[in-house]
Design a protein that fits this description.
- By secondary structure, this protein is α+β, with helices and mostly antiparallel strands.
- It has two domains: 36 residues; 53 residues, no CATH class.
- Helix content is 41%, strand content 21%.
- It is built from two helices and five strands.
- The strands form two sheets. It has a three-stranded antiparallel sheet, with no helix packed on it. The chain has a two-stranded antiparallel ribbon with strand order 4-5.
- The radius of gyration is 26 Å and the shape is elongated.
- The termini are far apart.
Length: 98
């Protein structure tokens, strides 16, 4: 009887330990996901740029001189007009104006 009680406690302890480890891993993942939320990214100094239609701008190829950009920051937005576009090239590191 006493041996059965020890076995039961051991099993329970093992399951509790596995659960604690799983909860710790889950908490770590939650922290990483939380850090990727757009609001968090903006607070780290990044901005999100949108064109005049509200679409997110991911490349200078989608811009044209005279176009409007709205940059979203952590504490508000700023609207600007595109004056010049410089496109980076990957093969020689040279930048070219578009």
């Amino acid at each position: 009887m006493r041996l059965e009680g020890l076995r039961g406690r051991f099993r329970e302890s093992r399951y509790r330990h596995a659960l604690d480890e799983a909860l710790a891993r889950l908490e770590a993942v939650r922290g990483r996901v939380e850090s990727l939320r757009p609001e968090r990214v903006l607070r780290r100094g990044y901005s999100i740029s949108r064109d005049e239609t509200g679409r997110v701008v991911t490349t200078v190829a989608s811009l044209s001189p005279g176009g409007t950009l709205v940059a979203q920051f952590a504490d508000g937005t700023a609207t600007s007009t595109v004056r010049e576009i410089t496109q980076e090239t990957t093969h020689d590191g040279e930048a070219t104006k578009v």
